[in-house]
Specification:
Elements: H1 2-18, H2 24-38, H3 46-52
Length: about 55
């Protein structure tokens, strides 16, 4: 299941960059936040995880 969630995240990222013409960095941050939520990370831990890169 986590692999499927990451695949959905990659598709979402490509969609936001290509179709919505969203800034690449902004699209990556939004996608990271959504994937973290879908994987079950607590809301309070998500910004730290995105900033540092580990759980």
């Amino acid at each position: 299941m986590p692999l499927l969630i990451v695949l959905i995240g990659v598709i979402l990222l490509i969609f936001m960059i290509v179709k919505l013409k969203l800034n690449t960095f902004v699209a990556l941050v939004i996608t990271s936040f959504i994937v973290a939520l879908m994987l079950g990370l607590p809301l309070t831990k998500i910004p730290t995880t995105i900033e540092i890169g580990n759980i």
